[in-house]
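Lab manual, section 2.4: Encoding a predicted structure.

Procedure: take the sequence of the chain (122 residues), apply the prediction step described in section 2.3, and record the output as structure tokens. A sample record is shown.
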Amino acid sequence: MLLRNAVGETLRDARTRQNRTLRDVSTAANVSLGYLSEVERGRKEASSELLASICDALELEVSDLLDTVSRTMRVEQTAGKGVLANATKNGLPATAAGNRSAKLDIDPSLRIVVPYTRAPVG
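Recorded output:
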């Protein structure tokens, strides 16, 4: 998973959990609706200044965004690409896997714990 995809998914999850529209957040963040949509879809990489503006509009700390993105990417890298796909098929937001951030309003009981096992050598 690319960083810009994980950032976009996390921002979209935060926005939709707040029942806010792209227009509402783009206006509050002072960014065009089209550009915000591109960021959420992982098509554009947002600058640190733009991420700060979007996070402010979502009342989300940049550090919480980055923590969630890091956890999402770590889970995917450790467990394989199927984990997040299975989580979303079961009705969980993609960022729920491995997330401990209360600020994103994700119920800790929905967290997915995937044990790490090494493949046998030889």
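Check your result against the sample. DSSP finds six helices and no strands in the chain.
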